[in-house]
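In keeping with the milestone schedule agreed at the kick-off meeting, the structural modelling team has produced records for the first pair of proteins. Each record is given below as a sequence line and a structure-token line. The laboratory manager (R.T.) confirmed that both were archived under the project's standard naming scheme.
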Amino acid sequence: MAEQYPSIAQCAVLATAFKVLLFPAYRSTDFEVHRNWLALTYSLPIKQWYYEETSEWTLDYPPGFAYFEWLLAQVAQFFDSNILEVENLGYDSWQAVYFQRTTVILAESLLIYALNCYVRSSPQSAKQTSYAAALSILLSPALLIIDHVHFQYNGFLYGILVLSLVCARKQSGHLSSGLMFALLLCFKHIYLYLAPAYFVYLLRVYCLGSMSRLSVHWGNSLKLGSGLVIIFGSIFGPFLYWRQLDQLLSRLFPFARGLCHAYWAPNIWSMYSFTDRVLLLVAPRLGFVIDQNAVNSVTRGLVGDTSFACLPSISPRTTFLLTLVSQMPSLVKLFPQPSWETFVGAVTLCGYSSFLFGWHVHEKAILLVVIPFSLLALKDRRYLGAFRPLAVAGHVSLFPLLFTAAEFPIKTVYTVFWLLLFLLVFDRLAPVPSRPRVFLLDRFSLLYITVSIPLIAYCSLVHQFVFGERYEFIPLMFTSSYSAIGVAGSWIGFLVVYFTS
């Protein structure tokens, strides 16, 4: 089959040129977060990294990412040494901005490489659909908004994840897949939510015999176990030696934060919060007991315990149990049927569970679902039917991250263009399934996408025109609740597809 045109590399060059034009664009507090991490990893001994509190944006990623920041800092000193002073809070010279944004683009090269590997490893019959899926990830509005405007390094991290998934495709790559995922956990601990799928898959295909599920490949188990010990030991070992693990873990898992983030991530708890807000209006008529301490709170989740006015409060233990229980069915199917597609499906469903039921979920965590699902979306039209509402909800839910007027055309025009282009292309490429499609899911997708148009118009334009600065929580609440319905509906649809395939 002829080489696809334009190639992924050519599209990456074009996308990079566009991203460079966004260097002067709005940047969130995450820009200062990473500048501070550059400074503290460069200026302080490793022993002090997880104790430093000069800035409120303390180091709360695993040591692997801290080492990554240290490497970047070695280069940063040649561009602007003031970046690396811990006391320079809020420092944002043009040299600092251009350097940090450039590092995001360069680090994203790993994702480009991983997507190339994904297309090359696909069967000949699936080259075209794999190419389309890879381009949809490379040109994703989510990565553009989160990494190249808002500011983070998700492209780099998801490059490791995609490469790990690609390695899992062949028997010779199972060990590499597991070790790369272990390395990913040392960079960002949010990927722990996907670990159950990796554990079951590698246990079944690498550590247990193919002839009997009870036989053990001791050699494989030893290689995987040794590799994990080396990776985690080398990265976390110094902190264990210095008896700093408790301090490190308190930074990685700050359960003192509330159930919901400042802007409700579109999950079950945003609908729970919305329901609580509605009940607050009708509580006097229904005779509900109201928690007066929660009445004046809109998000009830910035810092501290989350409280609700009418509904019972939710504990971290409750969210953990719900996440674990909702992940179990996909793992039960994965163990006896450890194909690559089933594995990626289980990874996707683990991502769904963590996003929908997790504690203090950020809206940006929707990438845990969107990116692995993108690799399966074109398997057939049933998968695509479940993917559509997720694609819309996942990207619309990120709009509040960019709230300045200058960035409005970027987020809306680019996202709408991406949705129209790739959903139409996906619709043409997705093969007809061997099983009947889910009629209700198709109708839900159509209705859901239709509603997104007036919603975006109201939240982005009409509300401010009518109300000005008043009731600013209403567009956020509408966006979050609408997106939560799409994510939850997509999850249910994918569960049906996953267990009937």
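The second protein of the pair:
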Amino acid sequence: MDEFTADAFVNREEPLPILTFTGTGPPSPDPESKRSKLKEKLSNSKLKEKLQDGANSRSETGFSLQDRLLTKLLQQVIPTENIEEVLDLPPDKRSSKYIGRPGFSLPLMTNNFRRFNSRIGIIFVFQTRLIRLLTWRNPTHTLSLLAICTFVCLDPYLLAVLPLAAALLFIMVPAYLVRHPAPPPTVTHSQYSLNGPPLAPPRTIKPAAEMSKDFFRNMRDLQNSMDDFSNLHDGVLKIVTPPTNFSNEALSSTVFLFLFVSTCTLFIASHLLPWRLMSLFFCWASIILGHPSVQEFVLDNRESHLRPHERKAQSWLDAWIARDIVLDEPPETREVEIFELQRRKGGRTGEWESWIFSPSPYDPLSPQRIAGERSKGTRFFEDVCAPKGWEWGDKKWILDLGSREWVEERMVQGVEVEIEGERWVTDLLDADHPDEHGSLGQWRRRRWIRM
């Protein structure tokens, strides 16, 4: 195995760090959702066509017989049902039939991954140097970055200078120094000469050779970068999703209200804000927080200083949401009453029989009794319906144990009230038939209530 590839951008230093968030882990795959998404995005017959295109277009590029057999096997496995024809969808103009892009091919993807991994080293080199710059590995370099950020924040027009200066310092000057190297220290004439023909060939950027250590270093950093992105993605979703997906409607409504007010305020008064000073403060704060001593100080004092303020702010926000955010008015409630009427037959010793469930108590002085009319209602409890436009809040009827109260509220007279037991309110002696029913009348009732 080769030690390294000359003139290749490869991170040959420490591996890239892996970000870790508390409570995050690899999500469990959902085959049903993956299958549905695949059907929505691409039809099976077109995917089969893409496999054929990829196999045919790459058949002369040197793929092994095993790779081509695997591609043919995948073509046979994929069913020919066309989802677009079933759903009457327009043709997908992104298909390989309309544009000159190869379709999905496992050998092609493998080849592209090898090529990509050989050339991705420059990104990892930049990432490693940026981490070193922001973590104060070399304080003079970080202070230089602070100086550049200060100039750019105070004079934003200098942003146009940065790409040009970067091209000069990081592309042109190193390329010239490669062509015109400094003389070795053994030469007496140590003065660097800018004249004369070039002494070395120009440098060319080459991809890392396969099966070299640089190739596997790139794979290592690519592996860690994928882990970083997955953890960062899950961490951001864990923070952003609960207050924005309206699972807690009060909290999401508060976030929506703050964003709306902030948008309107900035639309009107954004030109009054000191953006340069704010950018300068944010830039300096971000870079200073990367210093190891500052991070250690912040972590040591977080529990004693920051946590109380966080809890206080959280409690204030919860109290404000509970007090001012009203999603729906509480439903209006009303108490519904029904009177169960029973009639006695057979004289003093006669038995009571269920008669009707009526909205009125049908007492001796009621207009219906005086007019000689029968009480109105329904024979069965289950037939009692809620008023029009309302619905029941309780599951069942409740017997009103305060029989004396509703009798006194209605000023019902000529009745006997049970304050215990089944709470019947019975008519007293019937003046028209004193001998038939004894001291009690013909009717009795009790009150049921429901919300």
